[in-house]
Specification:
CATH topology of the largest domain: Thrombin, subunit H
CATH class of the largest domain: Mainly Beta
Number of domains: 3
CATH architecture of the largest domain: Beta Barrel
Oligomer: single chain
Helix content: 10-25%
Structural class: alpha+beta
Distance between the termini: 123 Å
Strand content: 35-45%
């Protein structure tokens, strides 16, 4: 290439490198983002300008469908499966002026032909009956089949069929911290659902029937909100199995439920069949007490049940048991807590001769005890 100077002379120019080097005129040749899609996308996503000018919205806004998180999905599924099985109870009692309101609560369907499970205190009392309403709009009359105040469980029979029975689980498999859902009718609001966790296991809850007091074992403590009207409703695990029957509110965030386990299943079956639960009675009042060091070393246990009261003419008095005796064994089984005695007081023990071992002072005595049937 040539050019002219101002005085007309011609000179020779060096070649322009941009004319022969494509990188000088094509930015894609020097910017790797131009040919690398991953780098290009990364640059675009990091560019503020790209955010300012983008008009795309997340798919959920366009479709109106927002996915549920895992926790919500479980609670929703449990609610949808169990709601048809939980009834709202309106309890009445017979009087001279007719049926009058006597309370409210919840119940869980056990069978398609009308058996319902609820808390004993919801329907306890003479002449109790009422109506059970379900989420499908049905309202059925019910009558009381059996009540066991000492486990706070009762079985009802609704006058209808085609109910959706709940699946009973096993509370012995629960773990502290596990998700649970309470379904019931607090304050008359049918089909209410609250969720929480198992706060504690192995609690004891006193239950009274007449002058008799018994401790319900292995009660479930939960922080799922419970209110009046929740009693008799379902406490459900993440598999939609009923693991407890809501029974009491012990404080804010402190609800209690009677567990569904082999012992309570037997009670439920007995109530359905016989309408009542038979229990043995030995006629003592007692409480836990540490064993003296010598007895502790001899027996290999730390505690026993101290007798603090003996009923006159009862089985314990006839067997020669006294106040301040420490019961360490009954029927060949060790006794360390009141619950150990309660578990032995089954219908099979009524009228049977049971060996009982007590510590009296520095002596151990073997006595024979013959329980009788517990009556209100």
């Amino acid at each position: 290439m040539s050019g002219e100077t101002s005085n007309g002379a011609t000179t020779s120019r060096a070649p322009d490198p941009r004319a022969t080097d494509p990188r000088a005129t094509d930015p894609r040749a020097t910017d790797p983002r131009a040919t690398d899609p991953q780098r290009a996308g990364s640059s675009a996503s990091e560019s503020p300008a790209a955010h300012e000018h983008s008009t795309e919205l997340p798919r959920e806004f366009a479709t109106g469908e927002f996915p549920l998180d895992a926790y919500s999905r479980i609670v929703v599924e449990i609610s949808e499966r169990l709601a048809p099985s939980v009834a709202n109870l309106r309890v009445t009692r017979r009087s001279r002026g007719g049926n009058v309101p006597a309370g409210a609560g919840s119940a869980v369907a056990l069978t398609p032909d009308g058996f319902l499970l609820t808390s004993a205190h919801v329907v306890a009392g003479p002449g109790r009956q009422g109506r059970a309403s379900f989420v499908d709009g049905r309202e059925l009359s019910f009558r009381v089949i059996g009540i066991d105040r000492l486990s706070d469980l009762a079985v009802l029979r609704a006058e209808g069929s085609g109910l959706t029975p709940a699946t009973l689980g096993d509370a012995e498999r629960l773990r502290v911290g596990q998700l649970v859902v309470a379904i019931g009718n607090p304050n008359g609001f049918a089909g209410s659902v609250t969720a929480g966790v198992v706060s504690a296991l192995g609690r004891s809850l006193p239950a009274r029937s007449g002058r008799s007091v018994r401790y319900i074992d292995n009660v479930i403590q939960t922080d799922a909100a419970l209110n009046p009207g929740n009693s008799g409703g379902a406490l459900v695990d993440s598999s939609a199995c009923v693991v407890g029957i809501n029974t009491a509110v012990a404080g804010v965030g402190l609800g209690l439920a009677v567990p569904i386990n082999p012992a309570t299943r037997q009670i439920i079956a007995t109530l359905m069949r016989d309408g009542r639960v038979r229990r043995a009675y030995i006629g003592i009042g007692g409480g836990p007490r540490p064993l003296p060091p010598s007895a502790r070393a001899r027996l290999g246990r730390a505690a026993a049940v101290e007798i603090v009261q003996v009923a006159p003419a009862g089985p314990a008095e006839r067997a020669g048991m006294r106040v301040e005796d420490l019961i360490v064994e009954l029927g060949g089984h060790p006794v360390e807590r009141v619950e150990d005695l309660q578990r032995a007081m089954t219908a099979e023990a009524i009228g049977q001769s049971l060996p009982v071992r007590v510590v009296r002072g520095d002596r151990e005595l073997e006595l024979e005890l013959r329980p009788i049937e517990l009556t209100d």
